[in-house]
Amino acid sequence: MPNYFLEQNDPELFGLVKDEWVRQNTHLEMIASENYTFESVMEAMGSVLTNKYAEGYPSKRYYGGCEVVDKIESLAIERAKKLFNCAFVNVQPHSGSQANMAIYHALLKPHDKILSMELSSGGHLTHASKVSMTGQHFQGFHYGVNAKGWIDYEEVHEIAQIVRPKIIVCGYSAYPREIDFKRFRQIADSVGAYLMGDIAHIAGLVVAGEHPHPLPHCHVISSTTHKTLRGPRGGLVFTNDEEIATKVNKALFPGTQGGPLMHVIAGKAAGFLENLKPEWRNYAKAVKTHTQVLVQGLLEQGFHLVSGGSDNHLLVMRFEDFSGKEAEEALGRAGIIVNKNTVPGDMRSPLITSGIRLGAAALTSRGLDSKDFAFIAVKIAQVLNNIKGDQSGVYKEIEAFSQGHPTYTQPIF
Ligand SMILES: Cc1ncc(COP(=O)(O)O)c(C=O)c1O
């Protein structure tokens, strides 16, 4: 058993971290944006690198003593360039939101127009939603999805012609279908707009060739590193355009961020190494296969899925008779953790919603197979068909099942 400083110095906090470790091991994590990161990533993030200030970029820093962190950031950049098959990467964004902020700051002036997907259809807050700074400093215009829940590219084109945005954003938080980046670029070119891809959710599939690549179609692309990529919590920006890369670098530091989180950048480098291994392709394939197992299982049980299914790692269930909030809570009582999610045209508020979003990435990282996902689909249906009822029986089953599939081979807390 390792000697924990936290346990000795701060038993109260240690106890809470341990509680979270227990929670993660006794529940099934199906939030589409979460994952279990690699042990190597956690080691890098828990290292002395957190002590170092390194404003600036490798070999152009505003602080002394950066010779080692320069090598670490350069390693992260080189690995990311190989992974995304691109010419320029900035690995400093503290999060996906920061990455998006830097792109807007680099390419837009205040009040410029952003065209993006509306929130209830699967867009993200940082895609110029009114409640986000991005929707207050810039003018947000939005496209949605058609009655079937799919992007209607003709409609996007028509809206773009009317709005004449400076930037079009494609890439989403809750869109279960493939994105046609080529078609989006044609639309962007027709109105002289930049095309920004936000692959926060699908990056792990993209780098494995399991989703079309945003390059060469997008001018610039943002991502998170912690969702399907299984890296540390953070963001990045990449592009093949040198002028845009230079602008983004300035927009990120000193434009919108201060010192980079060197321990997280080291974590990103460690994660990218895993993503570059041949096994990563098998993982990404398995994530998609497992999502299909969930789709089939839930459709067989008579549930309605937005867009009728999924092409990626996530699916969105739509309910009529109860809310997403009620579904999230009932599944939570059964040990299955999901998030309530708005659905296209949702009449309920974002805190109530008419749907839930499910993803297969985390449980695939935990080693579950297709048979396990079929079992989970049955359990989800059992809970939702008895939404107001007692879930303690299912909870016991899920707890036992979860403990048979530990998150990590040894305790890490
Ligand atoms: C499409 C998309 N972009 C950006 C983000 C923001 O990422 P973060 O939470 O790291 O700021 C998210 C996160 O949910 C997302 O889904």
CATH class of the largest domain: Alpha Beta
List the strand order in the largest sheet: 4-10-9-8-7-5-6
Into how many domains do the coordinates divide? Answer: 2
Q: What portion of the residues fall into strands of 2 or more residues?
A: 5-15%
User: In the CATH hierarchy, what is the architecture of the largest domain at level 2?
Assistant: 3-Layer(aba) Sandwich
| CATH third-level topology of the largest domain | Aspartate Aminotransferase, domain 2
Pairing-aware structural class of the strands and helices?
Answer: alpha/beta
Helix count, per DSSP? 16
- Give the low-confidence spans: none
Look at the structure and give the mean pLDDT. Answer: 97
Largest sheet: 7 strands, mixed
Question: What is the H level of CATH, i.e. the homologous superfamily of the largest domain?
Answer: Type I PLP-dependent aspartate aminotransferase-like (Major domain)
Count of beta strands: 15
The kinds of small molecule bound in this structure are: pyridoxal-5'-phosphate
Pfam families: SHMT (PF00464)
Pathway: One-carbon metabolism; tetrahydrofolate interconversion; Amino-acid biosynthesis; glycine biosynthesis; glycine from L-serine: step 1/1
Modified residues (N6-(pyridoxal phosphate)lysine): 227
Domain Serine hydroxymethyltransferase-like: 6-377
Protein model, in words:
The termini are close together. The chain contains 16 helices and 15 strands. Strand 2 and strand 3 (60-61) form a beta hairpin. Helix content is 44%, strand content 13%. It is an alpha/beta fold. It has two domains: 43-275, Type I PLP-dependent aspartate aminotransferase-like (Major domain) (Aspartate Aminotransferase, domain 2, 3-Layer(aba) Sandwich), CATH 3.40.640.10; 280-403, Alpha-Beta Complex (Aspartate Aminotransferase, domain 1). Pyridoxal-5'-phosphate is lined by residues 33, 95-97, 100, 124, 126, 171-173, 198, 200-201, 224, 235.
